[in-house]
Amino acid sequence: MGGDYAPEEVVAGAAAAARTLGIEILLVGPRDRLEPLVRSQGPGLPLTVVDAPEVIEMSEAPAMALRRKRRASVVVTLEQVRDGRADAAVSAGNTGAAMGAALLTLGRIPGIDRPAIAAILPTAQKTPVILLDVGANVDCKPKHLLQFALMGSVYARRVLGVSTPRVGLLSNGEEATKGNDLTIRTAELLRASGLHFVGNVEGRDFFTGQADVVVCDGFVGNVVLKFGEGLALALRQLLRDELRGTPGRLLALYLAPLKRRGMALWRKLDYREYGGAPLLGVNGVVIIAHGRSNAWAIRNAIRVAADAAARRVVEPIAAEMAALEARTSVLAGAAETPSAGVGEGP
Question: Does pTM top 0.90 for this prediction?
Answer without folding.
Answer: no
